[in-house]
Task: structure prediction
Amino acid sequence: MPPSSSSALQPVEPNVQLAAKHSLLMRSLHWLNAVAISALIGTGIVLLIGGDALATLGGSIHQVFYFLLLGIGAVYLTALIVSGGWRMFLPTRETVADASAVVKSELHLGAHAPRLKKYNGAQRLAYGAVLLMVAGEIVTGLAMAYRYQIPWLGVLLGGRHTVHTIHKVLMFGIIAFVFAHVVQVARAGWPSLRSMLCGYDIVPVGSFAAIDGAFPDHLGAPVTRSAGQQKVDTQTRRGFVGVGAAAALGLALVAVGSVRGSAAENARDERDGQSLGGEDEDGDARSAGDRTARPRKAANANDSNGEK
Result:
C-alpha cells in the first residue's frame, strides 16, 4: 500500500547527540560545594565584622560547614586522582595559550579558536586556581581551629597572624572567583546552567561546534531531537531536586551549628557565673576574717597594755 500524501509530506525530525559533560558525582559535589562555600563566606564575613557578640555562634556554624567542605574536598580529590582528571588543571603550554586567546576574545582584541575538550584554557586555569585556594582555606582553617592540638601546623605556615592573613586573602580570592563564575554562567545562558543540572549538552549530529569555548568530551548515539530533549528535561528536573536537597542540608547544618553555638555560649556563661560566685565567696570570707581579726587585735592590744 503506497504511503499517504500526508505522511510523505511530514518532515523528518533531525537527530541530535547528547554530549555528556558532568557526571552525577561531579554535579552533586558542585551543588554541595556551592552550599558550603556560601555558608563559609557568609559566616566568615560575620566573624570579621560581628565582633565578640557573634563569635561563638558564627564560629560554630562556620566550623560545621568547614567539615562539610573538608569532606567534599576529600571525595573530589579522590575522584580526580582515580579518573586522571587532575591532569586537566595543570597549566600546560597549550592551556596557557588557549587561555590567552580566550581573554583576548573577551576583550575584543582577537579571535579564539577552540582547541581543548570540556573546558577551555581560561576555565581550566581558573578552576585549578580555585581548587588551590579552597585547599589553602582548609589547611589554614585547620591550623586556626586546632592551634592548641596541632601547634606545629601554625608554626609551619608562619605563625598565627600569618595564618589569619592567608585565610582572609584566600577568602576574598574565592569570592572574586564566585562572582566571575556566576557572571560567565549568566552570559552563557540557560544551556550552561542546565548542563550542571542534568549533565548533558544537546548538539546536532555531526556538529563539531565548540560549547563554551571547548569541544564536547563524550558524545552519545544519535537520537531524535524530541527524545534527546525529553531525556534532558527529565534529568534537569532531577537536578533541581538535588539542588533542593543540598539547600535543605545546608539549612539543617545551620541549625546544628546554631545549637552547638548556643550550648557553647551557655556553658561559657555558667563558667563565668561560677567564677564570679567563687570570687564573691572569697571576698565574703576575707571580709568576715577581717571582722574577726579586728576584735582579736584589740584584745591583744588591751592585754599588752595591761601587762605594761
Q: What stands out?
A: The first strand starts at residue 15 and ends at 20. The domain at 13-302 is CATH 1.20.950.20 (Fumarate Reductase Cytochrome B subunit). DSSP finds nine helices and four strands in the chain. The radius of gyration is 32 Å.
